[in-house]
Design a protein that fits this description.
Elements lengths: L2 H15 L5 H39 L10 E2 L3 E2 L1 H13 L7 H4 L4 E3 L9 E4 L8 E7 L2 E4 L8 E4 L3 H6 E6 L4 H5 L3
Antiparallel strand pairs: 1-2, 3-8, 4-5, 4-8, 5-6, 6-7
Helix pairs in contact: 1-2, 2-3
Length: 183
Amino acid sequence: MNTKLLLCMLLALTSASCAAAPSAPEASTMRFATALSEEASVEADVSWSSRAQEVLVNALSLTGIRYKYGGKSPETGFDCSGFVRYVYQQAANLSLPHSARAISQLGKTIPKHELKPGDLVFFNTLKSAFSHVGIYLGNNRFIHSPSSGGGVRVEDMQSSYWQQRFNGAQRLDGLQEDAKKTP
């Protein structure tokens, strides 16, 4: 049932409650409002899931694009944050800052065991926290633009190198308006 239909039904129930005994319609309206709220939450999750799918498809389509320090497009190459920024702009219409550390300040912090595809994963690769970022794909894998001489590729987070350097993760769902304002 879509949200507009639920809202119309809620208004109809509220209007009908004026002529009915107060207790029954109030309980009915309360249950309906709760159902409406739950559906809105489910719709937000579905919306983020479909957006995360777009992010993953877009990210994977860039596999092999060469690394370039400060790079931010397929034509010039990507550094890690340029890659993440480009993917989220193209797939989710989110404008993110151009540094892993700045991106790490956005969204909601997620424990490693709660990672979902589309979440951002951060690593300490330059003896500095949050110096590297990638996009979580699922099954302990992430995609990123790793370093000079390399290209966009998928890595296993359980390899000893990445496991030792993991700094944290962020989820960007619900970030639309805030991220669009970021230069």
